[in-house]
């Protein structure tokens, strides 16, 4: 995915509402903001990445339907993290109680919370360092389990609270551990 | 990387000052704004285009220094056109009296006028149609002579007030006509 980072000077900083409306007015682009409000503009992904992402989402949603203890989100969902960054992970999940605590208006816009679980899927043009920094940011903001799936290097980095990052080489599957009980992600379709 | 066009929703329209500050905060990007307020974000040019642009600017600047009829601007200069668009042609020229009529503050920011003469140089990723629309906009806003130099097709389109666009195939040189008297741009270096 190619993109630009637009540094936003103080006089042109976007409010949350302006950022939301900007995203709505440009549905063919993907936007994030870092914690200082700079705008990250990304192109749509290529076909291979989109297919891989769909495979991940498919499995996560199937598990979530059976499990019924939370809500899953696809890559178009926006989250306003506690550090003020606005991010769109490739997949995310939150427990039901967090969802139910949101007002109807909050549910309709970018969710003001950090997902308990997220996946970032590296596309051919993504810099690994950028994604690693993003994973670290999720952890600092409260994500309990994060997977950075890196098809180029056939690796997965697993991020957990208060643990070193674990790197798996070419795993067949990943376990949702105690965050997504009994969720097993099959990676056959990804490699 | 090609350009991104951001549709700016009414709640997030940028003022002239905000746009200027945004450009200052992103000196490594080229930003323009359409008359409708859409933000156009372009990457820096590649080496070949930069070299061609530099050759063209040098010739124009040398002619101008000898003839002392006006002021030459390079591709990093912004102009606020009468229709509200904010554009950065690859080269531009205005007569001395227009420059002298500007306040010192106006001279320091994007110039609130339409250049009498502009050059747009097509880079490998530029769409011809986009540049043709831009040339038409310059002419409608008061540019007296405009050259769209298209190395890919070895063509130059010449835009003049109240005349049809003239297309030249692989010309050796271009004349500044009555707008830049005596200026001849040698195109050997460009093709």
Which short descriptors sum up this protein?
heterodimer, A: alpha+beta, tt1808, chain A, six-stranded mixed beta sheet, 5 helices, 27% strand, globular, B: 191 residues, alpha+beta
List the helices and strands and how they pair.
The complex is a heterodimer of chains A (191) and B (191).
Chain A (H helix, E strand, L loop, with lengths): L2 E4 L9 H10 L4 E4 L5 E4 L4 H21 L2 E4 L5 E2 L5 E2 L3 E5 H5 L3 H5 L8 E5 L6 H13 L4 E6 L4 E6 L5 E4 L3 E3 L8 E3 L5
Parallel strand pairs in A: 8-9
Antiparallel strand pairs in A: 1-3, 2-3, 4-7, 5-6, 7-8, 9-10, 10-11, 12-13
Chain B lengths: L3 E3 L9 H10 L4 E4 L5 E4 L4 H21 L2 E4 L5 E2 L5 E2 L3 E5 H5 L3 H5 L8 E5 L6 H13 L4 E6 L4 E6 L5 E4 L3 E3 L8 E3 L5
Parallel strand pairs in B: 8-9
Antiparallel strand pairs in B: 1-3, 2-3, 4-7, 5-6, 7-8, 9-10, 10-11, 12-13
Quick take:
The complex is a heterodimer of chains A (191) and B (191). Chain A has 191 residues and is an alpha+beta fold.
Notes on the protein architecture:
The complex is a heterodimer of chains A (191) and B (191). Chain A contains 5 helices and 13 strands. Chain A has helices spanning 16-25, 47-67, 96-100, 104-108, 128-140, and strands spanning 3-6, 30-33, 39-42, 70-73, 79-80, 86-87, 91-95, 117-121, 145-150, 155-160, 166-169, 173-175, 184-186. Chain A is 28% helix and 27% strand. Chain A has one domain (47-186): tt1808, chain A, CATH 3.90.1570. In chain A, the strands form 4 sheets. Chain A has a 6-stranded mixed beta sheet with strand order 4-7-8-9-10-11, with helices on both faces. A 3-stranded antiparallel beta sheet of chain A has the order 1-3-2, with no helix packed on it. Chain A has 191 residues and is of the alpha+beta class. The relative contact order of chain A is 0.13. With 191 residues, chain B is α+β, with helices and mostly antiparallel strands. Chain B has a single domain, classed as Alpha-Beta Complex (tt1808, chain A), CATH 3.90.1570. Chain B contains 5 helices and 13 strands. Chain B has helices at 16-25, 47-67, 96-100, 104-108, 128-140; strands at 4-6, 30-33, 39-42, 70-73, 79-80, 86-87, 91-95, 117-121, 145-150, 155-160, 166-169, 173-175, 184-186. In chain B, strands 4-7-8-9-10-11 form a 6-stranded mixed beta sheet, sandwiched between helices. A 3-stranded antiparallel beta sheet of chain B has the order 1-3-2, with no helix packed on it. A two-stranded antiparallel ribbon of chain B has the order 5-6. In chain B, a hairpin with an 8-residue loop joins strand 12 and strand 13. The mean pLDDT of chain B is 95. The interface between A and B is medium-sized, with 21 and 21 residues.
């Amino acid at each position: 995915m190619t993109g630009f980072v637009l540094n936003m000077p103080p006089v042109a900083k976007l409010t949350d509402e302006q950022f939301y409306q900007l995203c709505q007015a440009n549905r063919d682009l993907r936007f994030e903001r870092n914690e200082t409000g700079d705008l990250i503009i990304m192109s749509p992904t290529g076909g291979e990445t989109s297919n891989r992402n769909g495979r991940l989402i498919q499995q996560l949603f199937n598990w979530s339907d059976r499990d019924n203890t939370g809500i899953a989100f696809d890559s178009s969902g926006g989250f306003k993290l506690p550090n003020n960054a606005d991010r769109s992970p490739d997949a995310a999940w939150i427990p039901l109680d967090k969802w139910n605590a949101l007002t109807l208006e909050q549910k309709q816009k970018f969710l003001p919370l950090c997902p308990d679980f997220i996946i970032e899927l590296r596309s051919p043009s993504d810099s690994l360092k950028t994604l690693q920094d993003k994973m670290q940011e999720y952890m600092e903001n409260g994500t309990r389990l994060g997977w950075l799936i890196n098809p180029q290097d056939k690796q997965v980095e697993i991020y957990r609270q208060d643990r070193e990052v674990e790197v798996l080489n070419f795993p067949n599957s990943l376990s949702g551990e105690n965050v997504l009980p009994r969720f097993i992600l099959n990676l056959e379709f990804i490699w | 990387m090609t350009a991104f066009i951001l549709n700016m929703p009414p709640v997030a329209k940028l003022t002239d000052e905000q746009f200027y500050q945004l450009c200052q905060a992103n000196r490594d990007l080229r930003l323009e704004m359409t008359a409708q307020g859409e933000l156009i974000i372009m990457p820096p040019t590649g080496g070949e285009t930069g070299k061609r642009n530099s050759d063209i600017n040098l010739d124009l600047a040398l002619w101008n220094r000898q003839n002392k009829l006006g002021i030459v601007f390079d591709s990093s200069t912004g102009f606020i056109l009468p229709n509200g668009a904010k554009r950065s042609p690859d080269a531009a020229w205005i007569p001395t009296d227009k420059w002298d009529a500007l306040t010192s503050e106006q001279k320091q920011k994007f110039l609130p006028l339409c250049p009498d003469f502009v050059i747009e140089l097509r880079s490998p990723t530029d769409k011809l149609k986009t540049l043709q629309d831009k040339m038409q906009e310059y002419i409608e806003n008061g540019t007296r002579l405009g050259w769209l130099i298209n190395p890919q097709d070895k063509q130059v389109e010449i835009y003049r007030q109240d005349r049809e666009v003239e297309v030249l195939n692989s010309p050796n040189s271009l004349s500044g006509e009555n707008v830049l008297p005596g200026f001849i741009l040698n195109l050997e270096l460009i093709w």
